[in-house]
Amino acid sequence: MTVIGVDDTDSRERGMCTTYLAAQLADRLRKRSRVERMLLVRLNPAVPHKTRGNAALAIHTDLESEKAFDLAHDLIAEIAEIADEHTDPGLVVAAGDAEGIDRRISAFARTAVTGFHDLNATLSLIDSWGLRHAGWKTGRGRIGALAAVGAWTAFDDWTVEHIAYRDPDRWGTPRDVDIDSVFEAADHAYPAAWDTVDHDEADPVCVPHTPGPVLYGIRGDDVDAVREVATGIESEPVHTTELFLANQGTDAHLQHGEIGRLEDGRAYRVTGTVAEPPSTRRGGHVFVPIESGGQRLPCAAFEPTKRFRDRVRALRAGDRVTACGEVAEGTLKLEKFAVRSLVRTEAVTPICPDCGRSMESAGADQGYRCRDCGTTAPAKVEQAIDRDLERGWYEVPPCARRHIAKPLVRGGFDAPTHPER
Ligand code: ZN
Asked: What is the mean pLDDT of the chain?
C-alpha cells in the first residue's frame, strides 16, 4: 500500500479545492489500481497561512509508491492553482500500510491539528524518514501533506462526507439546487447525517457559496445516511462524487486548558466561573468573562453565531461553565459551552408583608424596614431566579459550525446536550 498526502492546492479567489484534486487523483489511481480510502483532514483552523478550510487530503492506494508519486505530481502541476499567490502546494508520499506509519508521523499529525509546525523542521523530518516529496513555490503545503500521511493512526474518531462536484463548465455560476429537497432529505437522515441544513436560519449549509467545484457536501456518521441525503437532493447534473473519511465534527482541535495558561492560535476546553454579566457590544457580539484561580478569560460569541448568543446572554455571574473554542488575542471564541451549575437565587431587598412595598435600608448593618408600616427585616432575602438555561452543553448553530467542531447530536459528551439543528 501507498499513502499519498496533498495539501494547499486550492485557491480562495479562483475556486480550486484540494478535495477536488484528490478526487481527480483517485480517478486516475482507480484506472491503474485500487483506492482503499480517502481522508479529509482538517488542520488547526488558527494557522495563519491556511487555505480556505485548512484541509489536507490523504489517499490510501495499492499502487506502488513511485508510480503513485508520479501520478500525483503530474496532476498537481496540471490543475493546482499555482498562480494564486497564497497557494503553495505540497505532496508527500509514504510506502507501506497507513496502519504501519511511523508513530512520530502520527504525533506530527496531531500537532498539526492542535498547534503549529515550521516548514524547515517539517522538511528535515520528511527527509529523515526517507519519504518522497515535492513542493511548489514555498512548498508550505508539505506540512499539511505530511500531517495527512500520519492522520489515519493519529485520530480514532472518523466521520464521513459525501461531496458532489459540479460540471467544470458551471464553476463560478449560481448553483441550481432545489432547497426544499435539501431540507426534506436532511430531516429524513438526521441525526446520522448532520449539519446539512440550519432550520432557524433557513440555510442549506451543505451548499457552499464560494466559486469552487463543490455542489454540496453531506456530512454524517455513516455512509448510508449521507448517500441517502445526496440521493434525495434535486439539483443540476452532478459531475462526479467522492466519499471521504474526515476528522470533521470530532473536536480533534480541542485540548484541556487552564485559564491564565492559554496560548493564542490553539483551541481549548476550559472551566471557570462567570465573573460578570454578559454584555452585548456594537455589531451584536456578546462577551462574557470567566475566571478561575484568580485569572480571567474573556469569551466571545460573535454575531454570526446567531441564536447561540441568546444562550450566552442567559448566563449570570456565578454560573459555573466549561467553555470551548479557539483563543485569539487572549479571547476565547466560543464554539460550545457546558453549564456545570447555575446560580438559582439572588439576594433582594425584602418586601413589607403588610403593604407589599419594598423596604428600605435602616442604616449600615441595621437591616431593612418599611417606612410606612414600621415592619423590619434583618437582611436581604434569597429569591428564586427564573433561568433560561439548564445544566449541560449548548452549541453554535449549524450555520456557524467550524468544520472540525463536534455537533452535540453526535453524542459522547459528559453532560446532557441541547443540540441545534
Ligand atoms: Zn409596609
From this structure: 94
Q: Which amino acid is at 402?
A: R
Distance 366 CA to ligand 1 centre (A): 17
Residue 19 Cα to ligand 1 midpoint, Å, equals 73
- CATH number of 35's domain: 3.30.70.2200
Position 268 scores a pLDDT of 98
The C-alpha cell of 303 is what? 454575531
User: In terms of domains, do 223 and 304 share one?
Assistant: no
The alpha carbon of 359 and the centre of ligand 1 are apart by a number of angstroms equal to 7
Looking at the fold, whether 277 and 319 belong to one and the same domain comes out as yes
Residues 122 and 259 in one domain: no
Q: What is the pTM of this model?
A: 0.93
Rounded distance from Cα 400 to ligand 1 centre (Å): 52
Shared domain for 73 and 128, answered yes or no, is: yes
Residues 131 and 183 in one domain: no
| Cα 375 to ligand 1 centroid, rounded to whole Å | 6
Note the pLDDT tens digit of each residue in 194-250.
999 999 999 999 999 888 899 999 999 999 999 999 999 999 999 999 999 999 999
CATH, residue 198: 3.90.600.20
Burial of 375 (0-12, 13-18, 19+ CB in 10 A): middle
| Confidence at residue 45, expressed as pLDDT on a 0 to 100 scale | 85
> Which of the listed residues 221, 246, 271 is the one where a domain comes to its end?
246
Listed residues 189, 221, 246: the one ending a domain: 246
Q: How far is the CA of 358 from the centre of ligand 1 (A)?
A: 8
CA 90 to each of CA 35, 124, 136, 140, 321: distance values in angstroms, whole numbers, following the listed order: 20, 15, 6, 6, 41
Q: Which residues are bridge partners to 35 per DSSP?
A: 61
Q: How far is the CA of 360 from the centre of ligand 1 (A)?
A: 10
Enclosing domain of residue 37: 2-154
Q: Output the pLDDT for position 417.
A: 98
Centre of ligand 1 from the C-alpha of residue 356, in Å: 6
Q: How far is the CA of 325 from the centre of ligand 1 (A)?
A: 51
The DSSP symbol for 369 reads: E
Q: Are residues 197 and 72 in the same domain?
A: no
Spacing, Cα 384 to ligand 1 middle (Å) = 22
Structure-block grid coordinates of residue 315: 448566563
The cell for 403 is: 468544520
Kindly report, residue by residue over 69-107, the tens digit of the pLDDT.
999 999 998 887 777 777 889 999 999 999 999 999 999
- Range of weakest confidence among 51-60, 184-193, 331-340: 51-60
Q: How many domains does the chain have?
A: 4
| Structural contact between residues 409 and 417, judged by C-beta atoms closer than 8 angstroms | yes
Same domain for 234 and 275, yes or no, is no
